[in-house]
Amino acid sequence: MVYKRITTGPRIERGDRIFWPWVACRWSGWRDALFIVQPATVIAWQRKKFRDHGAKLSKRNNSEKPSVAKEIMELVRTMSSANFSWGSPRIPGELGKLGIDVVKSTVEKYRVCSRKPSSPTWKPFLNSHTKDLVSIDFLVVPAVRFNMLYVLVILSHHRRKVVHCNVTKHPTAHRTDQQIIEAFPFDSAPKYLIRDRDGICGRQFRKRVQSMGIKEILTAPRSLWLNAFVERMIGSIRRDYRDHFVVLNTRHS
Q1: CB pairs under 8 A, 24+ apart, for 17-20?
Q2: Low-confidence ranges of the chain (pLDDT < 70)
Q3: Which of 13, 41, 53, 158 shows its CA 20 to 30 Å from the CA of 22?
Q4: Which residues 6+ apart lie within 8 Å of 250 measured at CB?
Q5: What is the pTM of this model?
Q6: Pairwise CA distance, residues 220 & 44, whole Å
Q7: What is the pLDDT of residues 157-187, one digit of tens each?
Q8: Largest CA distance in the chain
Q9: Which residues does residue 172 pair with via DSSP β-bridges, in sequence order?
Q10: Which of 183, 188, 87, 193 shows the shortest CA–CA distance to 134?
Q11: Neighbours of 169 (CB within 10 A)
Q12: 234 burial type by CB count under 10 A (0-12 exposed, 13-18 middle, 19+ buried)
């Protein structure tokens, strides 16, 4: 009696009473395929399948990407060290005059960093303008069928509050600037907006933000710490929310 009072069994509903006899009649070996696992195990299986799926795509894409010759790597380092005032966009143009086709990302990967003194830190800037600062960034959520869902997060720096978020399968510039309008109606727009150099924020997005009186602050490439507040919020969403179940679709997320 004590055991029955402490241990509560599963609730068998009407649908279960219909489903399991139907399975037993149609499939005699259903007991051999039945496993009882915890929810964390199902999530771990989904993560492993997603990692394997991403590894296959990455391997296929890397096999198609041509390797950079060692001579070109040394030439990029030499040009960047001899001309510190040259940025990443100019070096590919100078190399193009020599008949060498190099993209900007390759130059940024192999160029020598400038010896100029570092710029002022973000701490005094944030202390002076924290009430007028917001940050935006996209969070990528893999669904159960390996399709990507994009979550736009808009964070206010003053109270570390998420003022707006939106989920979509196909992010566009028009949809992104429309979310900015919905997040800051009337005269509530901030003075500064911090974001990365994502291509989704194109010319249409910049015009919309400028028309609202917002000045954009672009972070350096591959410098997540320059947009630390929203990146920390995205990490909290992943640890406290997304890692505990498998997302099915946009409505489920």
Answers
A1: none
A2: 1-10, 61-66, 114-120, 126, 253
A3: 41
A4: 149, 167, 168, 169
A5: 0.56
A6: 34
A7: 888 889 999 999 888 888 888 899 899 987 8
A8: 88
A9: none
A10: 193
A11: 11
A12: buried
Compute CA 53 distance to the chain's CA centroid, rounded to the nearest angstrom: 18
Placement of tokens 């900015």 in the chain: 180
The pair of three-digit structure tokens given for residue 64, joined into one six-digit string: 């198609």
**Nearest-angstrom CA–CA distance, 68 and 71:** 8
The single residue listed with the structure tokens 């490439």 is: 221
Contact 75, 100 (CB under 8 A): yes
Question: In angstroms, rounded to a whole number, what is the distance separating the alpha carbons of residues 244 and 146?
Answer: 17
pLDDT at residue 120 in the model: 66
pLDDT for res 193: 93
**For residues 153 and 163, what is the distance between their CA atoms, to the nearest angstrom?**
8
Upper half-sphere CA count for residue 155 (Cβ side, 13 Å): 22
* Bridge-based pairing state of the strands 133-142 and 192-195: parallel
How far, in Å, CA of 153 to CA of 156, rounded? Answer: 10
* Structure token pair of residue 233: 């919020």
Residue 138 pairs with which residues in a beta bridge? 152
The reply to whether CATH 3.30.420.10 applies to domain 122-244 is yes
Tokens 């960047």 found at: 80
